[in-house]
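If you are new to this repository, start here. Below is one unmodified record pulled from the training split, so you can see the exact layout before writing a loader.
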Amino acid sequence: MEEGSERLMINSMQYTHARLSSNSNRSLPQQFNTVPIQVHPQLFGQVRHILPSGSTYFQSPQQAELVQSTLGKENILAIMPTGSGKSLAFFSAPYLDPTGLYIVVTPLTALTEDMGRRLGQNHSIRGGIYPQFSEQNGQLVFVAAHLAGSDRFFSWLDPQESRLRRVFVDECHHIYLSSTYRACFRLFHKLTGLKKPFTFLSSTVLPQSIELLCSAMGISRPTLRIIRAPIARPNISYSVTRIREEDDMIAKVTSFCCKFLLNADDRGIIYSTTIADAKLLAEALGCDYYVSKVDEDPETNAKKKRAVMQRWQEGKETAN
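And here is the target side for that same chain:
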């Protein structure tokens, strides 16, 4: 152990699993509706064609409830683990109601663009990423968090508000966890003024945090129905290193990364709190960096970012 750093190894099979299971199963306050949603017996057949090949049913009862809930008028909070198929809720919505418009708000630019890529693989759904897609006949439109509360976005949405069926907010924990980090999250409450049902999606919202979400969005607690699945991931462990201000962060992160040998199918991501640090780390490690703006020209910017994302997905070396 290096001096000045503190390493905390969490045994996921013992500590993490026990704590997360306890939090997942903790009783929710009575003011929240947790009664299971009745799933129509023909629902799976209507969305089966967009599920992975060989699927015989939904991944879980909670996924089935979540998809069914898109047809209702209730506000939904779905807390389900990563990889449990939460995105099926909004990708299936245009098939369940082809005349409606569904908006998906995503907190991270990279996530928005990845969702747009997935949508592009499904040519039967009209939609895309706002503002690149700004037509008035869309079915599924993704919008980044920093645009979702803007006047420009509401001006585009206003003429078709009657078609708007539901607003999805992906990774919704950012609404109350990141409000001081990104001012745009403090504008999300403007979406509530549309008087349309919401679906909030996350894998990390604990019971004691739900009231924070409701307060930030201006949503009455009794109107929120909870769909919760156990979020314990016994196959995940955490290693935490605390770095003092006087430490060389770049050197420590570089040293840490060099200890790992990635196989052909493995991928790694380093998240940075500043663009400057992201660039320094990329230079030190000899890899790409991915930020919201890499070029002043919007078209060139989008092209360069797609190239970075594609290289990462394909496991190719940096172009630098």
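Two things worth knowing about this chain: The chain has two domains: 12-228, 243-314. The beta strands are 6-10, 75-79, 101-106, 127-129, 140-144, 164-169, 198-202, 224-228, 238-242.
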